[in-house]
Amino acid sequence: MNIFILTGAGLSAESNLGTFRDKGDGLWTRFDPMKLATPGAFARNPGEVHAFYNMRRQNLLAAEPNEAHRALARLEAGLVGRGNFFLVTQNIDDLHERAGSQRVTHMHGELLKARCTACTSAMPWREDLSVNLTCPHCGRTGTLRPDVVWFGEVPLQMDAIDDALAQSDLFVSIGTSGSVYPAAGFVEQAKELGIRAYEINLEPSDNARLFDEAHYGPATQAVPAWVEKVLAASVRS
Ligand code: BV8
After folding, report:
1. What CATH number is associated with residue 99?
2. For position 235, what pLDDT does the model report?
3. How many domains does the chain have?
4. Measuring from each residue's beta carbon to the nearest atom of ligand 1, which residues come in under 6 Å?
5. Same domain (yes/no): 53, 144
6. d(CA 194, ligand 1 centre) in Å
7. Are residues 141 and 160 in the same domain?
């Protein structure tokens, strides 16, 4: 069984990282990601964009993976030698890795990395970023940015993602609204290839109609339940 899993902000919601569309808590009422997660916003007002990501980085360092992240790590371990397992996330957090996932494809980059816009070096980064910092590689000041993919920028590892999707027997989308492309288009690609598609989300996503099967509920309940079913079936087969 070759499983392709796409995760989104809903997977980390119960780790208190907030999603892009819930307006419940303060973080997302003060900052509009659609306006801030763009190269233009960074060029116009780098201080505001740095503040947005500094707050999210500090939230992430205080957050813990949840039962959904841990269940996906168990699934990866349990399927070793039983087919391909490909996990791609739209999330820029490291909660999959901290939960024990070994291979995670971050198509939108990583919040705990910085990149120099002058020498293009990327480096682990856990402190606040600002325009006053000097790149440790090239020595220029004011050139460091979060190593993430903004709207209008090209997502990462697209060839590897397309190859893995083409080889999969099951496409599973977890905790994503299906509103941002090209990730939101993966389910259409799967259906065109005759691949079964399963959605696990709090509520139907924008492209819910494209899924063969769905389970709605909080990820910390729905994902472990699904993983236990898949692992039990893989032992029998
Ligand atoms: C691209 C990183 C070309 C940064 C992100 C005009 C100009 C330029 C581009 C475009 C344009 N018009 C359209 C586009 C394309 C654009 C796009 O899609 N725009 C949208 C707004 C229409 N896309 C791009 O620009 C992309 N680049 O197109 O380049 C290209 C294309 C193909 C191949 C090569 C090149 C780049 C997009 C990446 C942007 N960066 N993140 C950061 O994080 O700050 S996107 C960001 O928003 C996230 O990473 C994520 O992808 C997206 C939010 O989506 P979700 O993860 O789904 O989160 P959301 O809040 O929406 O939903 C959460 C879900 O969880 C909900 O359904 C909810 O019900 C559920 N949930 C909540 N709680 C729980 C839960 N589920 C379970 N349990 C719970 N407890």
Report:
1. 3.40.50.1220
2. 83
3. 2
4. 8-10, 13-14, 19-21, 33, 37, 90, 92, 108, 148-155, 158, 175-177, 179-183, 201-203, 205, 218-219
5. yes
6. 24
7. no
Ligand 1 centroid distance, CA of 206 (Å): 12
Q: Are residues 181 and 70 in the same domain?
A: yes
Q: List, for residues 151-161, the tens digit of each pLDDT value.
A: 999 999 999 99
pTM here?
0.96
DSSP 141: B
Cα–ligand 1 centroid distance for 151 (angstroms): 8
The identity of residue 33, as a single letter, is P
Give the residue numbers spanning the domain of 33.
18-62+112-148
Atom number of ligand 1 nearest to Cα 36: 44
Look at the chain and count its residues. Answer: 237
pLDDT digits (tens, 9 = 90+) for 13-68: 999 998 887 666 555 667 788 889 999 999 999 999 999 999 999 999 999 999 99
User: Measured between alpha carbons, how far is residue 201 from residues 24, 41, 171, 205 in Å?
Assistant: 18, 30, 14, 7
> Could you tell me if 172 and 229 lie in one domain?
yes
In degrees and rounded to multiples of 5, residue 203 shows phi and psi of: -150, 165
Mean pLDDT, residues 187-207:
97
Boundary residue ending a domain (97, 129, 148)? 148
For the annotated catalytic residues, the residue numbers are 108
Does 201 lie in the same domain as 131? no
Q: In what order do the strands lie in the sheet with 109-116?
A: 122-124, 109-116, 144-148
